[in-house]
Specification:
Number of domains: 3
Oligomer: single chain
Strand content: 15-25%
Shape: flat
Order of helices and strands: HHHEEEHEEEHHEHHEEHEE
Radius of gyration: 26 Å
């Protein structure tokens, strides 16, 4: 741009800019062709960067699956902010000497995937077998990916909606037994500080991105100044620091019925 401003070699600079623009368009076209080829092979839309991360993660897990035998089924509409896919070898059980390999592949920002890995490791220490095993973990700059065991079963939500009462009772009894086990194994009877308001403030930007009007602004009602919702949360946080919970247990931050799996086998 300095050459253009000085009026030096203007024709050459403009031509170079157009060449770079055409090269960029060629790169975009090649990228689209590559993703179209992956769609034809896998039967699932996946970006080149995601496929490379998947290959690296499978390699770290020492799982060798040829592209034509690889199955990828993405889960759309998840709220985690990460790309989640079920991957498998495409080999059906029963083949001679062959066993179907399946896993759950998750890719996204490094901080989220690292947190996911650390949480799985903590749960494994508390109650082995309760959460999926980690097959491999891969980092690439600000992005990371993880491959974990695919756990078969139905969500508690689908069981409650579609299955008979006898199975619902069995699933709820198993859930109660599991929760009691987690409580007993992770219980620490030592007072601990709480920071619920801090957690709320940490998520405030994400919340406002979805619900922009959820936090009320500062108002004046009959001459009385009413602080904004975020200021009230800040005030509550300062007061909250004077409190302590009498004990702590390890819990899941998203323990909803659509996140609980039950396998009746």
């Amino acid at each position: 741009m300095a050459f253009l401003r000085d009026g030096k070699e203007v024709d050459t600079c403009v031509t170079t800019l157009f060449i770079f623009r055409y090269l960029e368009r060629m790169g975009d076209a090649l990228l689209n062709i590559g993703e179209a080829i992956l769609l034809a092979i896998l039967g699932e839309k996946i970006k080149i960067r995601q496929f490379e991360a998947l290959q690296q993660t499978l390699c770290h897990a020492e799982i060798s699956i040829a592209p034509e035998k690889l199955e990828v089924n993405s889960f759309w509409g998840n709220r985690s902010g990460c790309n989640i896919s079920r991957v498998g070898s495409g080999i059906q059980p029963g083949g001679v000497g062959e066993k179907r390999q399946e896993g759950l592949f998750k890719s996204g920002s490094r901080s989220k995937i690292v947190q996911e890995r650390d949480n799985i490791e903590k749960w494994t220490m508390i109650m082995p077998g309760l959460v999926p095993r980690i097959y491999s973990f891969h980092e690439d700059g600000n992005c990371s990916s993880i491959l974990v065991e695919f756990i078969a079963g139905q969500t508690l939500e689908s069981i409650i909606i579609t299955r008979p009462l006898s199975l619902i009772v069995k699933a709820l009894q198993k859930l109660e037994t599991t929760l009691r086990g987690v409580w007993e194994k992770s219980l620490i009877t030592v007072p601990a500080g709480i920071d619920y308001m801090g957690q709320l403030l940490k998520r405030s930007e994400d919340i406002m991105a979805v619900h922009p009007d959820i936090f009320r602004d500062q108002q004046v009602v009959s001459g009385l100044e009413v602080p904004s919702a975020l200021i009230l949360v800040e005030n509550c946080r300062a007061w909250e620091k004077t409190l302590a919970a009498p004990f702590t247990v390890f819990g899941h931050g998203d323990l909803n019925i659509n996140n609980i799996l039950y396998d009746e086998v």
